[in-house]
């Protein structure tokens, strides 16, 4: 495989990894935000912190729970990049 193809594959893998990790972190926060917004609309409560605090807590909880998996994915990708360096150079 040529160096250009290896670089393209690495970039594609990196972008896919970014999308997966960001989706993993953002999606639960969006769902909780939607639930809180529906609750606020139903009860006519317009408190800004009521929307912010649950999203913050769910994001922190998710990072604590999924943190080791996220770090393992990042370490594996970094290790792959370092191992591919000789093939990219020549």
Helix content: over 70%
Compute the CA-based radius of gyration.
20 Å
Mean of all residue-level pLDDT scores? 91
Question: What's the number of extended β-strand segments?
Answer: 0
Which percent range describes the beta-strand content? under 5%
The major beta sheet can be summarized as: none
- Structural shape: elongated
Structural class: mainly alpha
Helix count from the secondary structure assignment: 2
Low-confidence stretches: none
Query: How far is the first residue's CA from the last residue's CA?
Result: 11 Å
SSE order? HH
Short description:
This protein has 90 residues and is mainly alpha-helical. Helices cover 92% and strands 0% of the residues.
Descriptive report:
By secondary structure, the protein is mostly helical. The chain has a domain at 46-82. It is 92% helix and 0% strand. It has two helices and no strands. The chain has helices at residues 3-43, 48-89. The longest helix is centred in the last third of the chain and has 42 residues, at 48-89. The N and C termini lie close together (11 Å).
Layout of strands and helices, then pairs:
Elements: H1 3-43, H2 48-89
Helix pairs in contact: 1-2
């Amino acid at each position: 495989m040529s160096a250009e193809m290896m670089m393209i594959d690495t970039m594609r893998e990196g972008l896919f990894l970014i999308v997966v990790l960001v989706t993993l972190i953002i999606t639960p926060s969006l769902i909780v935000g939607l639930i809180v917004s529906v609750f606020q609309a139903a009860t006519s409560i317009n408190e800004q912190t009521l929307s912010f605090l649950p999203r913050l807590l769910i994001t922190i909880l998710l990072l604590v729970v999924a943190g080791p998996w996220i770090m393992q994915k990042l370490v594996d990708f970094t290790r792959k990049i370092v191992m591919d360096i000789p093939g990219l150079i020549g």
